Amino acid sequence: MRHPERAAASVAKAFKFGLKGITGYLEPAERDLLRGLLDDVISMLDSDARDNEDPLAALIGLDMDVKKPSDRALLRLLPNVLKDDDDGSLEFRQLTERSVRESKVGALRATAMGLDKDELVLTLEDATRWSMALNDVRLVLSERLDIRDEADAEHIHSMQDWSQAEDVESYLALVYNFTTWLQESLVQAMISARQAKS
Amino acid sequence: MSPSVAFGTDIDERTETAEQSSTGVLTAPDIPWNLVIWNDPVNLMSYVSYVFQSYFGYSESKAHKLMMEVHKKGRSIVAHGSKEQVEQHAVAMHGFGLWATVEKAASGNETPGKGGRQRG
After folding, report:
1. How far apart are the C-alpha atoms of B48 and B43, rounded to whole Å?
2. What distance in Å separates the CA atoms of residue A15 and residue A119, rounded to the nearest whole number?
3. Number of folded domains in chain A?
4. So what's the pLDDT on residue B10?
5. A122 is a domain residue
6. For residue A75, what are the domain limits?
7. Can you tell me the ipTM of this complex?
8. Does A104 map to a domain?
9. What is the distance between the alpha carbons of residues B38 and B100, in angstroms, rounded to a whole number?
């Protein structure tokens, strides 16, 4: 896992908790970047939608054609539920994967729509959806960046200077660090909001 | 283990499922399935702890302890229950982006009841 102090290295805070609730501000370029990332993950999760599927099965959320994802990033979003049992996990996927995909896409879409405003004002429920969406974006980026262990994560985290963005990998690393910073800032605001409620 | 968990009015909608399904009819020794959370280098410690608090209704200290166990030992049993209960939790955890699996209590290394009896 990532340590909060490491992730919060940047001085600025995207989100804070105050009288208006959880508020945040992102630059227009940051919002565009984030919208693109959210759309990418939405299309990954939505891409398997089939036209000719059994409408009754769809209605009750079953998906008998589901497979274990071959893409590692997608597998990280939709992991096996049994550790060393692909068959058992597949049975579970048939019953549940559709609803997991739908709830993820719902959170990603809600977050993307929320980006249309300059100043972000979030309820705790909004913020929860945001944090889930940001987490999924980070999981996908981490697979693209091949982050396998804490040492990999440290290496990626050390890249903070946008003037270093010379190739795709370094650019992705900076994007990853931006989303990490954003999520950490949001979760800290959510923790404050929760404490204030209790 | 925290002796009690403050269940106030601050339970968000997400917690309701957990609450309904975990209302303890079964006691720890009777409960045959574990929900396991695995470590990964991506998920933020603060986020994991927050999810344990908001979804399971665990106290901050219990959530932190479980999160640290995931971080240091690579995995932690964060809840147990019937197969259906822990599967429902696993779906929720996957929704949050946490790497969760379910297992029969006997196959784990941890003593049942040690890491995650529902609601402390």
Report:
1. 7
2. 10
3. 1
4. 39
5. yes
6. 22-197
7. 0.90
8. yes
9. 6
